[in-house]
Each structure stands twice: as structure tokens, then as C-alpha cells.
Amino acid sequence: MKMKEKPRQKPLLRAGLAVGVGMGGFLDGIVFHQILQTHHMLTARIPKDSVVRLQQNMVWDGFFHVFTWIVTAAGIGMLFRARSVPGLVWSSHTFGGAILMGWGLFNMVEGFIDHHLLHLHHVFEPLGVSIYDHIFLLAGLALFLIGLRIIRRA
Amino acid sequence: MRRYAIAFASTAMITGVTACPVCDSVSGEELRQALFGEELTRTVVEVLAPFPVLAVASYVICRWCLP
Prior knowledge:
- Chain A is mainly α.
- Chain A has helices at 10-35, 51-82, 92-117, 131-153.
- In chain A, helix 1 packs across helix 3 (92-117) and helix 3 runs antiparallel to helix 4 (131-153).
- Chain B is flat and about 55 Å long.
């Protein structure tokens, strides 16, 4: 008698988490570093008060984006490999929830390490550690929990 | 696959080195001095610090916290 295959979701969750972390990183970089320019990677240590210092910050922004690119590419690779996993349940809720969880995880980890622990930069640099940094962390927690809830309901 | 990755990385590196728009300028020289100072290693470690933490956190979440 043929055994019924257990439905699997882990490969999809793993891929979604990685894509979410990468997209969270890109969103931070695009919105805060480039469009609003409220901070750059090292503005708490190297204020952008000259062209060279701004360029320095941009180089470090670039290194940060290289790694967010690598994480996103790894997530796409995991998603591609997931197609051959037997018994995988392709659920947009699961994948979308995992992306939200990854995005939230990025905000919490990057926010805590860069904004509060190492003080490399803050969300709105002229204020230093401010309410915006706390909102950034809370937004991360909210995204994480919403993603988790979507996955559990799916 | 690996061959394509190596080709891509080599092209990116060559392009990055040769196309740097500030390399020959005065500000480019200042930038290089500022970037490659004593703090370089420490800065690299600090800028990239969230990524290993994210990798471990993702692993833990996938392994133990999700259905």
C-alpha cells in the first residue's frame, strides 16, 4: 500500500523568510537611505557634512545592499529548488506570511544591532535614538506577528 | 552554474574597479584614504553584523517555531 505523503511547507517558509529579509533590507535602503535620506549606513559616526563623508556613507550603503542582494538571491534559489520537493504545498498565504516575517525579522535585528547596540545610524539621524527607532522596531514586531498569524491560519 | 557565478563576479569586480567615477579625482583620493584607514576591518564587521544574526534567527524560526 502506498503511504500518503505528508504535506510539506518548510522549503517555502525558508525561501519566503530569506526573500522577506532581503526585501526588508532593500526597502530600508531605498526609502530611508536614498529617497528620504534621513540616514545612511554610518551617519551616527561619519556625519554627511562634506561630499567625501557622504561618499564614504554611500560606499557602506553599497556593501550593505550587496548582502541584501545575496540574501534575496538565496531566497529565490531556495524557491526554485522547492519546486522539486515532493509533497510541497504551494500556498501564497504561506509564502506571503513568510515574507512578512522575514521583513519584520530584518527590522528587529537591524534596528536593534545598528540603531541601539552599535549606534551606526538612527532612523532620523538629527535626533539620534528617537521615537522613530522604537517605531521601526515595533513595526518589525508587528510584521513578524502578522506573518506568523497568516502562516498559522493557512 | 558555478562557471556563470565566477564569470559574473569577475565582470562585476572589473567593472567596479575600472568604472569608479571618483577614482581619479581629488575627492576620490580622500575617499580612499578615509575608507582604507585603520578602522576598515572593524567597520566591515559592524556593517555586516546583522546578517549572521539574521541567518541564525531564520534557521531557529524555521526549525522550531513554524509548523
